Amino acid sequence: MDACTLGDLLDVVGGPALRLHTAPAGQAVPVTEAVLYDGRTPLPRLPGALLLAVGVRAAQAGPLVRAAAEAGLTGVVVRGPDGPVGEAEAHGVALLSVAEDAAWHQVHLLLASAIGARPATASDTGLGDLFALADAIAAGVGGATAIEDPRQRILAYSTVPGQAVDEDRRQGILGLQVPASAENTEQYRRLFAADRPVRLPALTGSDLPRLAMPVRAGGETLGSVWVIDGGSLAPDAEDTLVQGAATAALLLLRARAARELARHRGSDLLRRLLEGTTDAPTAAQRLGVTGPARVAAFVLDSTASVPDAERTALRLLDVVRLQCEARYGRHACVLVDGVVYAVLPAPGERHKSLAEDIVGRAGQALRVPVRAALGEVVPDAAGLADSRADADLVLRVLDPDLPVATVDEVRPRVTLLRLAEVMGERRELSAGAWRRVLAYDAENGTEYARTLVCWFDAGCDMAGAAKLLAVHPNTCRYRLKQLQQHAGVDLDDPDERLVLWLQLRALAGLSPATA
Asked: 248, 225 in Cβ contact below 8 A?
């Protein structure tokens, strides 16, 4: 595994927890450890270390920054935002900060854990070590070896020359999956019930017997190790296999931790990309997002009763990630405030069908209705924050009759929604005759607002408005005349008609269907 860099560390714990103020040497500098400052002793020479400025006020940390530079440290972490940025830049030392109320021992634990458990690269997933272990077990035990996960998928296999193999092994390696059969199922049942190596007979006349050992850690079954018994196993084969299984457990746990931390790092990076708080080209490169794309948002139906919403949202994340990975391979998904966001690469013709499929599958699996919104297709990662904003707006206008929609399909609705928000924030946009109309209706029990909205939506046609209202056109005509008299509305002014229509639709939320 390559050394952890400052950029790697920020990817894992950046944002609110750890803020970078300056990095004169760039973010590719190595970070080897996190060290608590002890003012009673001189700084040791620790190239690559981050110094936590315990007991030193951020504004007074200039001398400590200079000392850190002389000791070859990568950077200094202060508490609070007013650290000595100028001194850090002058001496080539990174300056970072944590919150004023952060406990130093917790900061130290967080940074030390992140540095020591840095996510693996694509080529450092633990599988290479598993193949080496399979070869070592095969050489020590004397038989061709395979290491499997609990689902009988072959993770690694030995390649020691001259060892006997059979057709089951050949087929398993070709498909990286143990061939299914009733006899196999029984053998696995026996194996996983044991805590020592188990000798298993050949399943057919052309196959060879096996020596197998479950791989466990803390009571959890992580997989199994299988050795072909070609008649020349070593006398201490069982003891060697026990040791090999213990090593396999460590490697499988390490690979799992690397995958989980890599997923956490990717999720945090995607969250910041969708918020527009990180460098888009760099984030896109690390996430594998290239070219045009759009953001899809998935959420549990807020009207449904969900006993454990947080856990159900995590399960929704798993469903979305699984379906997107099945379609696109490696994929960027993240759960933010109960909403699952996924970046879907262009072309976008099939995005809606994918979203509908996910909504259907997730609804069946979780027993909760799910809704999905798709933002605008944007040319590159720099526009994904805007696409996410589109998707968030679409989510707000979805309903049981429209559980999935693209922003283009509901453009009028989201436009009115945004207009209502903007107009509501500005006094001069929210003032006007519409308030007088609603107040008059409330005081007198009239339906002037409803009549106005239907008249506007009928293109100011009296017969069309009457049809929407299910009244006689003369009734509409009378209401509008009274409206102008009592509410001071000038319906002959096209500008006032337009503004009044927008305010009633956007601010009052009236439409022919709801008025």
From this structure: yes
